[in-house]
Amino acid sequence: MSTDNVVDTKRRRFLVNSTSVIAAVGAGFVAVPFLSSWMPSERAKNAGAPVEVDISKLEEGRMMVVEWQSKPVWIVKRSAKTLSDLATLDDMLDDPNSENVDQQPAYAQNADRSIKPEFSVLVGICTHLGCSPTFRPEIGAADLGADWLGGFFCPCHSSTFDLAGRVFKGVPAPTNLVVPPHKYVSDNVIIVGVDEETA
Description:
Elements: H1 3-36, H2 42-48, E1 51-54, E2 63-68, E3 71-77, H3 80-86, E4 119-123, E5 134-136, E6 151-153, E7 160-162, E8 182-186, E9 189-192
Antiparallel strand pairs: 1-9, 2-3, 3-4, 5-6, 6-7, 8-9
């Protein structure tokens, strides 16, 4: 065996080992961004995160909209008159007692569908085909009839809901609007996305 062959073998081993190390390091640089792309982005994490809402400036008869899990959540401050009107609508509603338990947490399965009667917290998506209804608080609106006591109207297919998010009979929407999990951390702050009972 000549000396040249020994030198070539050592050089070959050195080059193979060096190339292997460089390839492993390069694979690491490729794998890290690839694997991290499987992790949810900060925006995605925040989209599902609970939302803290200050309701201190919400006036009676008004609605505010916040976003939770990429869905609009409506918070409506209802008057004593609105609350008394809700009780008169039962015969016109498909599920007046909120018996479909998938539509609200147990703590909102009551006449007002809320924790505090004066505040309604609803996901603003129609249960028919996912359109977003409009807030129609005016009583006796000409296009909705003299017996309209305020609520939500879906312009896509004319589904109607009262101010507790309960669906009227004879409309395309099959169920009441969803009440999201929420809790009060003070008289003026609601956290949407955290369940009152498990918080």
